[in-house]
Amino acid sequence: MDSSKISIGFGRWDWGASHRAVDIGRYLAENGQWDGHTPIAINNVYELHRLLFGVCRGEYTPQLGVDYEVRVCTNNDNRL
After folding, report:
1. Is 77 part of any domain?
2. Which of 34, 38, 57, 62 could form a disulfide with 67 if both were Cys (CB 3.0 to 4.6 A apart)?
């Protein structure tokens, strides 16, 4: 997985969000939802991280177009 391909779409953007985004990227790659190399934007990182790794672990499947977007990143994006 190439963490330089992960950016934050919308929601909080801070140090904690960047680490959670990498965790989410790893999860998506391990579960076959992302190839680990195509640029990706993860939306609402704190909420998605809570759903994937919190008390409800394993009960939520991230939705393409809602929780994350595969896209071509530009220099203006919030890259990690």
Report:
1. no
2. 62
